[in-house]
Structure formats: C-alpha cells, structure tokens
Design a protein that fits this description.
By secondary structure, the protein is of the alpha+beta class. It contains five helices and seven strands. Strands 1-2-3-4-5-7-6 form a seven-stranded mixed sheet, with helices on both faces. Strand 4, helix 4 and strand 5 form a beta-alpha-beta unit. The radius of gyration is 16 Å and the shape is globular. GO terms for molecular function: acyltransferase activity. InterPro entries: Acyl_CoA_acyltransferase, GNAT_dom, N-acetyltrans/Recomb-assoc.
C-alpha cells in the first residue's frame, strides 16, 4: 500500500472534515458519550476551528490515492488530541507509522513529553508505544466510580 504522511494543508481541510465527521458519528458511540459525539461532530464541520488548529498545532495526515485515511493532532506543548486511522485501513501498520511520525515531529520541535486521553480501545496501542497509563477514578453521587485514563511518555 503506497500511502504518504505529510503535514496537513488548507486543501486537505474538506477531506479531513469528512473523515473526522464520519469517524465521530459512525464509530464514536463506542468510545464517546452522546454529548461528546454531538460536540465533536459540530467541531468536525467548523472550518474556523480547523483553520486555527492548522496554525496552532502539528496536524499530519495519511493520504492514499488523494484521500485522507488517517490523521494526528499534536499541540506545541505535547498533548496528542487525536491519532486515528479510518476503520477500513486499520490493522495494516498505518497507525504505527503515523505514531512514529508524531514522535519524530515532537522531537524535532523540542517537545520532551507527550500526553493524551486514552480510552479502552486505544489503551493497548499507547502501552505498546511506551506510554505510562494512568487510571483516573472519580467518585460520583451514589458511590460509583467514573474511570478514565490518560497516558504520558517522556523522551
């Protein structure tokens, strides 16, 4: 499979918006709350949001035959907002290569530490890439716990 990974450009925006929207609305229910799906699907279509992210963050895309099939967003302070590959292209080593590019970009930018929110679907991926997984538990009314995870990796 002959795909390319490169920094996102303005011409990528419509393709990214479509991929992000499809991912959030179709597969997001497995990992996000209903409220998060609504918020993220609105953000996917918000051109101003993306234009600002292109300026402020490191956004890279994986392209195959002119289509964006994966992407990551890394802030200048080392927070990974997202890294994903379209479901039809998962299991082919693309996420591994995309993550490798993310680390290369971070190192070149002088970023010494990465952090991210993690869910049960991404936990193994980040562990395999050297992240320390931190379990965050919060007590809510009724004594139940809400569990979330974050990950940290220092270079």
């Amino acid at each position: 499979m002959n795909y390319q990974i490169s920094r996102a450009t303005d011409s990528d925006l419509p393709l990214m918006q479509r991929l992000f929207y499809q991912t959030v609305t179709i597969y997001g229910s497995k990992i996000f709350t209903k409220e998060e799906v609504k918020i993220f699907s609105r953000l996917a279509l918000d051109k101003n949001h993306w234009t600002q992210k292109f300026i402020e963050d490191y956004i890279y895309n994986v392209k195959l035959n002119g289509e964006v099939i994966g992407s990551f967003s890394l802030s200048k302070d080392g927070v990974i907002e997202y890294i994903f590959v379209h479901q039809n292209y998962q299991g082919r080593g693309i996420a591994k290569k995309l993550y490798s590019t993310l680390e290369e970009v971070a190192r070149e930018a002088g970023i010494n530490s990465l952090s991210t929110r993690i869910n049960l679907n991404t936990k193994d991926f980040f562990e395999k890439n050297g992240f320390k997984i931190i379990k965050n538990a919060e007590k809510v009314s009724g004594g139940e716990e809400i569990v979330s995870y974050s990950g940290v990796k220092n270079f």
